[in-house]
């Protein structure tokens, strides 16, 4: 039986995936794991958009349009090659899950706490993907913060796209990663 700690240590971002599509059961398990994340005021602020097949092509088209719009005053920053690159991004994996944090609906809820809860949900998803033997990668980039992209998902400008999770089966082995020792990040007080 693998422990949570072992799964945490084994998880790595994997950017290259095969064409094999994860099953609905696998995706549903990943979504369920997300909903067990801690969240203040029990807001459960997350929303998930599972994209496969043509939906990824449609998102890529909107991402390319949004890129062109962002650079409309400096079109030289927006070559055909960069538009094509942007359009192809969602095709890097067979499934893409966009994870959003809703803007607060109650006065006592802080936007940052909804984002934090959703980030915890994303980590649950990455760990569950790891446990299922899938490859996953948390990506953002300018598209995640673009109001036009949010609108395409039916989100408001105040909602936050916390993660595009690229999901599939690994086509590569992740490279070694060196961690900064916790000692240099930690201050012990009173113990
Ligand atoms: C908020 C956030 C945004 C990220 N966005 C990107 C991204 O746009 N592109 C990318 O290649 N990786 C992105 N990553 C993944 C990191 O590059 C990756 O987690 C880091 O290199 C550590 O590698 P590991 O996940 O294998 O431990 C993002 C991670 C987080 C937490």
Please characterize this protein's 3D structure:
With 191 residues, the chain is of the alpha+beta class. The protein has a domain at 17-56 and 91-171: NADH Oxidase. Helix content is 37%, strand content 15%. The chain contains six helices and four strands. It has helices at 4-10, 24-34, 54-70, 80-88, 111-131, 147-152, and strands at 46-52, 95-101, 135-139, 160-168. The chain has a four-stranded antiparallel beta sheet with strand order 1-2-4-3, with helices on both faces. Helix 3 (54-70) runs antiparallel to helix 4 (80-88). The protein is globular and about 60 Å long. The two termini are 33 Å apart. 30% of the residues are buried. The model has no long low-confidence stretch (mean pLDDT 96). The structure holds flavin mononucleotide (FMN). Flavin mononucleotide is lined by residues 12-13, 138-141, 174, 177.
